[in-house]
Structure formats: C-alpha cells, structure tokens
Amino acid sequence: MATSNQEIVIFGEIQKKLFYMIPERWESIYLYASIIEEDLKKPVGEMYFYYVPKGILKRKPVNVYQIPGMFNIDEESYNELIQKLYLNIKELRELHRQIKEQLWTNLTISIKDSKFKVEYAYDDLGRNAEFSPYERHIIWRYKNLEENLELQTKEEQNIIERYLNSELIQFERENNETYLEGIYKNPVHNIIDYEKTLTVEAALAAQSSSEEEIAKPKKEKKTKKKNDIKRLDTGHTDELENQILFGRVEKMKNAVQHTDDDFNDDIILSSDFMTRKD
After folding, report:
1. Terminus-to-terminus CA distance in the chain, angstroms?
2. DSSP 8-state secondary structure symbol assigned to residue 162
3. Which of 107, 112, 122, 272 is the most buried (most CB within 10 A)?
4. Are the beta carbons of 14 and 37 closer than 8 angstroms?
5. Quick check: 115 and 180 in contact, CB under 8 A?
6. Measured between alpha carbons, how far is 277 from 37 in angstroms, rounded to an integer?
7. What share of the chain is helix, strand, coil (3-state, %, to 5)?
C-alpha cells in the first residue's frame, strides 16, 4: 500500500504515544481502532490496545485500561493520553479521505520484532454488521493475541467458530490492506521509570500484601478469641483486592500537557464496554 510522508509522520506519533503509555518492558503491542460514520449522527469510535510484557516465561497480554490501577497512575490523566492517541487515528483517516474513494472502517496496529504493521479493514461495522462490537472484540483477541480456542468459554468458542465459517474471512483476504515499516527508533521517555516501577506481577503481589495488612487485627485486639475474628471468604477477598487495585490511585502530576482543545469529537468506547454484552 502506497504511503505518503504525512502518514509516516502520523505513524511515528502513534508509536511514540504507545511507547510512552506502557510502564514496563514489553514484547509486543496490539491496537484496534475504528470509526463508524452514519448519516446525521456523530461518529462513534472503538479503541483498545494490549501489550505483552517482556519476560523469560510467556506472560498474558495486559489491557491498556488496567494500567492506571496497576501502576498507580492517575486515571483521568491517562485517559487524556488515550484520547490523544485516538486523535492520531482520526488524523490518519482524514488523510485517507483526501486520497482514497473508499475509507477503511477499522485498523489493527501491531508492533513486534522491531516491525510496525498497520492492517486496514473495510468490513461493515454499522447496523448491518454480521458481528456485534462484543463479538468483534472476541474475534480480534483470538486473531491477534493468539488466545487458545480450547480455553475460551463455550459462548466465545461459538462466536469464533461462526467467524471461521463466515464469508467475512474471504472478504478480509480480498480487501484488507497492509503497511509495514521498522519501528520508531529515537528514544522515548515512558510514563514512569522502568527501573523504579514494579512489573504487573510484582504490583499485584504488592497489592496482595497490602490486603493482608488490612486483614490483620490490630495489636489491641490480639487477645480476642479466634472465633471473634471474622475471616474473609473468597468472594470478599476478590472484591477487596479490586478495591485496593483500582481504588487507591495517587494523582500523577504534570504527566500530560493540555495542548489539544477538544478531545471528544468522537465517542470512544472503552474496552470494558466492548467486552460487555448488551
């Protein structure tokens, strides 16, 4: 696919933002974004991305929307970074509007093995779409994050099997377009210092330790009988862990400069929305 200098500049901006937003070393990054336009309606967009942490053992992909809670980053400021990233996606599409008759409806960006890859797709995402947003997310995760079909729920397996037997696969083969280049090589500062932050596993372990401290009885209560001390069951423990993980976020100062006047031209549906059934 032919690429202009303007597109290459936008690709560089997208890469820099992605590199900045990930707070630990990574093996690969996968991003999905779409823009749905309907007559007399405001455009609606979907965007989510995952990264695979670097490590000796294979690690699970991390959802971008989990980063603020895991790494103690202000969620509001981080969401502004997501909005700025989406603005670059919009800029790319507006540039294509000027040079192409048919506009892509969604794209997938992958960064792996020092390669930056963009796949443009043209399938219908409107009212006549074969798959719902929820289903598209399940399919996208299966295709890009290499999720094991056997480990999926029965419902997810059915969605993927429908996709594998659909005409959409042939349509994608015939119409999708791909661009490939080397990654942006200039050094980029990250949102927090690698050397001063914990990995995802360490962050979760630290949260578990905090939970144990909270669950311990105070010194003055040590003389009470064991049956006076209430133990948390599994359900309550999970709930408490979530509260610790996502509820205690310190404010990140001066991490984002407010240079864009309008972040909300389009509606961006979060990954939580995309994985929720209506």
Report:
1. 37
2. H
3. 107
4. no
5. yes
6. 22
7. 45, 15, 40
Query: ∠ CA(244), CA(247), CA(252), 5° rounding?
Result: 115
**AA identity, residue 274:** M
Token reading at 120: 């443009």
**Domain 5-193+251-274 top-level CATH class:** alpha beta
By residue count, the chain amounts to 278
Residue 274: phi, psi to the nearest 5?
A: -65, -25
pLDDT in tens, 53-98: 988 877 889 999 999 999 999 999 999 999 999 999 999 999 998 8
d(CA 216, CA 231): 10
Beta bridge partners of 33: 47, 107
By C-alpha distance, which of 158, 154, 140 is closest to 61? Answer: 140
pLDDT digits (tens, 9 = 90+) for 194-238: 544 445 555 555 555 555 555 555 444 444 333 332 333 333 333
